[in-house]
Design brief:
With 467 residues, this protein is an alpha/beta fold. It is 37% helix and 22% strand. A 7-stranded parallel beta sheet has the order 3-2-1-4-5-6-16, with helices on both faces. Helix 13 crosses helix 14 and helix 17 (409-426) packs across helix 19.
């Protein structure tokens, strides 16, 4: 039997387990972090990381050869004790734990899979992983993950035909289906609300027309621009994280523009920017934030408003948010009223800070309901120059809408991709088992994952755009 430890029992875990237990030689253990509430808040862990053992046991009961256990991924002792008993460990907990987990895996010579980006902390373990002979494979979700598979495929095809990729764009969004997006943010949570909101507060760095452009988190949402992917969608796109290294990762030194980013429905970035301007996305503890306060009282303290009545709060919001037009002001303030954060209702304080308190509120208001569908939209755009001088624009697009009776599109695209990569490592695939801290940036790594992923109905479709 092959023994697999999955850390985390959140939204992505079920389709990952589902895929892995198809192989009768696999035995899965779901390890769940179970700290008490104050420790969760202190460590800024996501809700998925803080669910208790009951959640993991409930998930395990749905699948054959699957059990659950409690462990603390913040504890070196706990990780060392448990990781050594497995052939591979999959981390679906927040990335802040990955370096510690890889260190434990190095000691026991256990392979590691994560769906997160390689970080400086994990990259620093590359030499030790190579020496231990283990693969620490990262970025095998959807974004990152599926995006790599099809970027590498198309770029290699262009190079093989003598062409050059002059511009590369890639945008991805995990969103509600358009018919389920009828709330002021045009958004629902298919993963951690905290993570979803903070992902819109990153800084960005990208290559445009041969120049490196940097955008601070303060001006991040202001850079959102209308983006056409296909009929039926009203998207805006904005750069996210650091795109510059992907010119090297994707082997396109000829490119003068490389931009990777996110998709949201129109109106969402401006609303998130307003929440940020008002201090709602700050994770720092507030000693004055106590249970028993009303939302209006919380707003008054957060904004330094003169009083708790609605007019006073709205006047102060307009001062701080600096809305570009009166129509935008009315739209966003109306949305805040819908959220209830100007009301006399008692607030439920979470984590002792404004961010987690807001997230708890939004999770109640903006979670998917039975029968509602989510959407993963991922699109690459390639500007290609051929040897004869002709220029062509191509796209590669994933439009994945969930089945209301099945897994969410986000959970499916991340969990199944991770499951496939894990199974390939268990099967000893040489490209994926190569030791070191790695991500799928080569055809040798991408193709076996992509071929199996398409069998699961997850596929990016290529098209040419007429100029």
């Amino acid at each position: 039997m092959k023994k697999i430890l999955i850390l985390g029992s959140g939204m992505v875990a079920p389709p990952c387990v589902d895929y892995l237990v198809r192989n009768p030689q696999n035995q899965v253990t779901i390890g769940e972090l179970t700290p008490d509430a104050h420790l969760c808040a202190k460590q800024n862990s996501s809700r998925a990381a803080c669910r208790n053992l009951i959640s993991a046991e409930k998930l395990a009961s749905r699948f054959p050869r699957t059990n659950a256990m409690s462990l603390d991924v913040s504890s070196t002792t706990d990780l060392d004790k448990h990781v050594s008993a497995y052939d591979v460990v999959i981390s679906l907990v927040p990335y802040i734990y990955h370096a510690k987990m890889i260190k434990a895996a190095i000691k026991s010579q256990t392979h590691v899979i994560t769906t997160s980006y390689v970080t400086e902390a994990t990259r620093a373990l590359d030499a030790a992983a190579k020496q231990a002979g283990i693969a620490a494979l990262n970025e095998v979700g959807v974004d990152p993950g599926v995006d790599h598979l099809y970027a590498i495929k198309k770029i290699n095809e262009v190079h093989a035909k003598g062409g050059k990729v002059r511009e590369f764009y890639s945008f991805c969004g995990g969103l509600p289906a358009p018919d389920c997006a009828q709330n002021p943010l045009g958004f629902k949570f298919s993963w951690s609300p905290r993570g979803a909101l903070l992902s819109q507060r990153n800084s960005a760095r990208f290559l445009q027309d041969g120049r490196i452009i940097e955008i601070s988190s303060a001006e991040f949402m202001a850079k959102a621009k209308p983006y056409y992917a296909m009929e039926g969608y009203d998207f805006v796109a904005y750069p996210n994280r650091d795109s510059v290294p992907f010119r090297e990762f994707y082997n396109i030194p000829e490119a003068h523009t490389v931009i990777r980013g996110s998709l949201r429905y129109d109106g969402n970035p401006a609303f998130v920017q307003a929440l940020a301007n008002l201090g709602w996305l700050k994770p720092e503890k507030k000693d004055w934030l106590k249970d028993g306060m009303t939302w209006a009282e919380v707003q008054q303290r957060a904004l330094a408003a003169p009083a708790t009545d609605e007019n006073s709060l709205i006047s102060r919001i307009k001062e701080l948010a600096k809305f570009p037009t009166e129509a935008e002001s009315e739209r966003i303030i109306s949305g805040m009223k819908w959220m209830g954060i100007l009301s006399s209702e008692k607030a439920t304080v979470a984590g002792g800070n404004l961010l987690d308190t807001l997230c708890a509120r939004l999770e109640k208001l903006m979670s998917f309901q039975p029968g509602e569908r989510d959407l993963v939209m991922l699109q690459h755009k390639f500007e290609i120059e051929w040897a004869d001088g002709q220029v062509e624009t191509c796209t590669s697009t994933l439009e994945l809408l969930s089945d209301p009776k099945g897994y969410s599109a986000m959970a499916l695209s991340v969990g199944v991709t991770c499951g496939i990569a894990t199974q390939l490592i268990l099967d000893g695939h040489p490209a994926l088992c190569k030791p070191g801290v790695r991500a799928p940036y080569t055809a040798e790594m991408c193709e076996p994952i992509r071929v199996l992923l398409e069998k699961e109905g997850i596929k990016m479709v290529e098209a040419n755009i007429e100029r």
